[in-house]
Amino acid sequence: MEIMTNSLPTVKCYVLNVQKLMISRLMMAAKYESVSPYYLTKAANCKSKQNQLLELGVGLLLERELGVHSVNDIYFGQHGKPYLADHSREISISHAGSLAVLAIANQAVGVDVEPLPDKVDRNSRLALKKAYGDNYDEQADISPQRFGEMWTQLEATVKLDGQGLWLDSQLRVGQINNVSLHFTSYNQHMICTATNELANFKFDSIKFTV
Questions:
Q1: What are phi and psi of 15, to 5 degrees?
Q2: Residue 3 within a domain
Q3: In terms of CB atoms within 10 Å, which end of the chain has fewer, N or C?
Q4: Cβ atoms 63, 35 nearer than 8 A
Q5: Residue 154 structural domain
Q6: What's the pTM?
Q7: What is the pLDDT of residues 31-77, one digit of tens each?
Q8: Burial of 54 (0-12, 13-18, 19+ CB in 10 A)
Q9: H-helix or E-strand spanning residue 28
Q10: Which Gene Ontology terms cover its molecular function (predicted)?
Q11: Which of 153, 154, 145, 152 is nearest to 116 (CA)?
């Protein structure tokens, strides 16, 4: 039976390149005053400027798309999965490299972003081996694109139920085989969004004027 895509639930994925942001104590206090204090504090406590920008980027996406202004608008589960306080929608967040990402849906959703390496080196292969266990083929020729897909699909999938990466590798891979995955390659990063049911995925690159 053919599935009508226009009848499927929609997952919206918003992406912000944080390199476009400016950050200073003055900017944090003035231009970003509508961002939740939770993310302003996280940004201020980061040692590196890049991590400051990433935390601020997540706060900006939550404020712009969902109206998250205060620490009471959002809370986190045992392993860090975010939830809206009013439970109006399901969300997932991720940040890495130069991108902050927010996924919004009416069903459980997980999202992950990973910068694509220039080449898949030994450390990258060891990370995949550790994550996938016996399900990882050490002889396989893995391109940077494929590495990005394998890593993000793993993290996006376990973010669905908030169990994190504490699951046994066999259970993690088993989950991947039972969810709907959508990949987007953007700005030398791989983004994977995971849902338990089929969905339409909409991708939007957000630009902030600074």
A1: -125, 135
A2: no
A3: N
A4: yes
A5: 9-206
A6: 0.90
A7: 778 899 999 999 989 999 899 999 999 999 999 999 999 999 999 98
A8: buried
A9: helix 25-29
A10: holo-[acyl-carrier-protein] synthase activity; magnesium ion binding
A11: 145
